[in-house]
Structures are given as C-alpha cells and as structure tokens.
C-alpha cells in the first residue's frame, strides 16, 4: 500500500531544518510597492526553502502586481497575494491561487510583528500564493503556518501600520482598495537596499508543550472514533486518492522531525483480509528492493476483536538534499467492508518516545455504529473546525462541532478564541484541577454544542446572535492571557473568579435590570 510512503513524505515535509544563518550578502529581497509605501521582505531559506523559492518565482513573474491586501485585521495581520483581487468578483477574494500548492514547512520561528507567513486552508499542504504579514505578535499561529520571511526596513513597518489602519467592511475587505494595492513587485539583491534595519535572528519557540493527555476524535462521516494526543495539530486533509490519509495528527518536533500519526480509511472492494495483506506485502517488497526501506517485522494481531496486521520498518529518506533516518509502524485493521490503516512515523532516535501514544490511539479505535460493551468515555470530542485559519475561505462541514468556533469563525473574535485554546492546552491542562474541570465541562458542553453548531451553519442570523451573546464571555476569559497560572491554587482562584464574573454578567445583572424595569 502506498500509505506508508505518503506518510513518510508528509513527515519529512514537516521537518524543521534548524536555526541556521539566514542572511547572505548576495541573497534576494523582494520589494512590494504599494500606494501607502514600500514593504521590503527578506527570507529564511533554511527554514522554508520551497516557500521562499515559490514566493520569489511568483514575484519575478509579476504574479503579485496589481493584487491588493484583501483581508485586514488591525492588531492581527494583513493578508494578500490573491490574483482574484485584480479584477475578480469580491465573493471570490480569498480563494484564488497559482493553480498549485506548496507542502507545509512548519518551523520554530515565532509569528511576531513583521513576520511574513503563508496563508492556507485546513489542509496544511494547501499554501499557494496568499501570504500574510503579522501586524502585532500572534504566537498562537506558531508552528501551524509556514513562516518564510520578515519585513526589514523602517518604512516597511510604517507601511504595515498604514495598511492595518485603513477602513474595512464585510469580511475585513478594505473599503478603498486602491489604498492597499500592490502596484509593482521587485526582486533585488540585498546589497541594492541601503536602509535595512540591523535585526537579530528571528525569535523562535524554545519550549515544547508535550501534554500526556488525550482527546477523543469523532468523525461521523467516516463512522469512527479514536483518541489523539492532546495538543497535537489535527488535520483532515483533502482526499486526493484512496491511499491518502483521512486524518493526520502532527506532534511537536523534538528530534529531526515531527512525529506523525495518521489514519487512512479505504473500501476493501470485496477483498479478504489475506488479500489486503498480500497486496500490501507486494508493494513493500518493491520499496525494499529499491533500497529506500528496511523491513523490521510483520505479524498478524487482534485489536478490539478485529483482525490486524502490524508492519515495522525504517529507512533513509532525502529532503532538500539532506538524509533523515525515519522509522515507522503501520497497523492495518480490517472489516468486511472497510480497511483502516494507522501509521506512526518519527525519527529513529525518537521513535520510542511517542510509540505508547500511538498504541493508545490504535487501541481506542472504534467504529461508531457498532455496538460496544464498554461504557461511554468522558473525553472531549475534538472540534472539526480549523485552528485559526488565516485563509478565510475554508468551508466548514455540517455534522456538529464546537458552537463557539462556528460562531466566531472568520470574525474579529477568531484570534481570541485561538488564544484561549492555546491557553487551555499550555496552561490549564497542565494542572490536575484544570484537567478535572475540562473533563466535566466537555461532558456538559458537547452534549448540546454540535446541535447548536449545525443551527448556526443553517442560519446566519442565529450564528450572529450566538456570537454577540458569547462576546462578553470570550472577553472575560481573555483576561487569563495576562495572568500567571503556574499553580493549582491560582488556577482554582482565577477559575472561580471568572465563573462568578460570568454569572454576574449573564444572570444577576439582567435580573436586576428586568426587576427595575418592572418596578
């Protein structure tokens, strides 16, 4: 089966290529000429070589000439690079591109002010031409979008502020588009620009939050549930062929690459379990003969009373001229109608560090429609919405989800919601009281959230009403971004205070107003 190589190549695209020097005396810079000033961009080719090459190529070909910054959110970012903004219908702005995509090159550079990063849809490998420039530090985007450059002159920062301050209308589109038009793009040598700022190396993420918890992932369309590691980047990439993964969970990088757990669901097409094994082994033999793969072991097994086939292998794979020693484990689970292939890949030296979490994911796997003897788990269902997609055109699927994420998706509250998610993962879930609270909260919240999320998708008016209703609560919770929650006592104290604050806002204050009006 080709699933093995697809996942291995996906893993390699997620490799962080390190903290190497980025500036060379003769390297290329790009100058964006706009009606509000110039923006000069330098690049990080050692962190995102493919994105840098793509951006420079598009710039040299005049691709960006005449485009506008079509999405502007002051205090967050400005986004441009869509060819549809040259003369297309405004309803198509945000969905245009060069006709191809560039695979993700996530790295450790922080999304601080002035950073240039690629916009994308829910699929991590969907970047094309659209990019965004960070107006104010937005570190909740770190390691989820490909940083490939930064602005590097004082005029660039002044221009960024001017663009961020223009008046906008629906969907954050500027009212006067001529103000924010990119009239011309130049590719020049660094030595040709005299007013460069003396900037240090970009700031990078130094600590990795590697929570030991899990969350229950549920996909109604695929009729499956299984646990995924808490805090891992969960994606549902577009299904390009039957061997492409349906779900991908990407963990924080510790060694040479990010650990990856994926699940691929396929129709058996009438094939028996032994037929699937023979088909898989024939393909593996071909790869082994090519010298790219070393087979360690293969054996039949049983997982949750279902037939399974476990393959362990390792190999040396190249990415941008560098070789990486990669190890993987693949587990094929078969039913008469469907086959389910779980794959875990990581660097050889770090393979054992996450294998237990992979085994937990596999052992928790269930087909939702099948009866089970086990009691219902109290773990939270993971949201199916995207994590603060900078590209606003990602379509939400029906079938439940998080009512908060659905209500705030694409709105001015989306960055705040993502910050609260990061706060939950990085602070709240690091304490026992926080974990206990989230388990209880999720059990209650997800008992009604999917239904309300569906109503929001069906009625824009209802969605707007929910968003307005949630705004005070989200604003009050945002206070936690400015306090230290480094102990159980502080978590409990701040938690009780915010609960009382929200009770006052939503119940006591309205009751007092109604009482006074009635009097």
Question: How would you sum up this structure, described in words?
Answer:
Helix content is 30%, strand content 23%. It is built from eleven helices and 18 strands. The protein has an eight-stranded antiparallel sheet with strand order 3-4-6-5-7-2-1-8. The chain has a seven-stranded antiparallel sheet with strand order 11-12-13-17-16-15-14, with helices on both faces. The protein is globular, with a radius of gyration of 25 Å.
Key words describing this protein structure:
alpha+beta, Protein Transport Mog1p, Chain A, eight-stranded antiparallel β-sheet, seven-stranded antiparallel β-sheet, 30% helix, single chain, 3 domains, 519 residues, Cyclophilin
Summed up, what is this model?
30% of the residues lie in helices and 23% in strands.
